[in-house]
Structures are given as C-alpha cells and as structure tokens.
Amino acid sequence: MVFALFIIGKQKNLFDPVFKLKTNFKNISGLQVGNNIRFSGINVGTVDNINIINDSTVRVELLIKKTVQQFIKSDCVVAIGSEGIIGDRIILLTQGSYDAPTAKDGQVLASKEPVETDAIIQSLMVTANNAEVITNQLAEIMYKINHGKGTLSRLLQDSTIAENLNQTIVNLKQSSRGLDENMKAAKSNFLFKGYFNNKKKAAQKKRDDAEQKKEAEIKAETKAETKARNKK
Questions:
Q1: Are residues 71 and 125 in the same domain?
Q2: pTM for this model (two decimals)
C-alpha cells in the first residue's frame, strides 16, 4: 500500500512543490486528468482538473513543478498533443519570449486548439483517393503508349517522325550558318559599312569613357590618401 501510494503520489506530483496554471479549450480531444505535461520535451507536470465552463469553453488546470517555473513565461501557449500516433493525449507547453515575465501561480495561459484525429484521417483519405486517380491515369497513358496510340506514342515509336525531327535540326543549323554568312557579307558591303563602323565606334567610345572614369576615381583616391598622409 505504501509503495502504491508512493507511485501514485509521484505521478500526481504530491511530493514535489508545484504551482498551478490554467487554460481554456473549445475541445480537449480526449485529454484526461492525470495526463502528462511536457515542456521542451520533458515531463514537468500533470493535468490536475478539467471542468466545463459553458457550451464552448473547457477549463483545464495544470500542476507544474516549481523547479521549472522560472522557464515558463506568461506568453507560453498550451497545446494538446499525443504520445506517438495513437498514444495518450498530453499537454505541450511552447517556449515563450526571452524578455517576457515568468508565469505566476494561477495564471491563465493562451491555448491552441488541437487537430482532431478524424480530420487527419479524412485528409489522408482524400490524398489517397487523389493518388489513386493519378495512378489510374498514368496507367492509361502508359497503356496507350505501349500500344501505339496517341501523339506521344508516335513520337517515341515512329522512326519516320524521329528522322524528320533530325532533318529539321540539320536544316536549322544550316540556316544559322547561312545567316552568319549573310551578316559577314552585309558588314563588307559599302551600303552597310558605315552603319557597322558607327556601331563599332560607339562601343569603343563607351569602353574609353569607362576606363577614363575608372582612372579618375583612382586618381581621386590617391590624392585623398596623399592628403591624409600629409596631415599626419
């Protein structure tokens, strides 16, 4: 009996100094009195009491070890999680701001509503249904390709189309080569020679201006350094 009382008392934090915090939820999602409270992944207390305040509010009272009170800030948020995928419900305390005041005994903390397991399962079912539809469509496309149906199948399996594509690429290369030759001929033609010469001169002037600007900046920096040394 003494051993049993010791174990129960340890779980209920009867032998450790504690302080109490409170929070409100619309839905506690299966949370029960005695469930663990975790802060930074460490068990720091237990759920002490659960009361229905009204039709939309459930008050949850938490017993926290006094030794961790200095780390729990007034802007910490209380959430409901679970131990594993289908484990017991637990209370999770998020870390607060560094400069926020420490939570006091009896203070009401903000809460974050839990995500229902049914909603998660429903979302997974929708995802699975979508994956099934996509898989069926891919199977249908592969069937058509393997049996020579559709444009993509003809592109992959028809050698004539492949040869036409290769010939098209060859023609494009020849056209590009011919365009280069025409540009060279245009540059040598006296009718366009002035245009290309002006363009070349403009490009050279732009380079010269950039070099002159750079030289002026270097001279200004050198002058400033010399002036600073003279002052010293």
A1: no
A2: 0.47
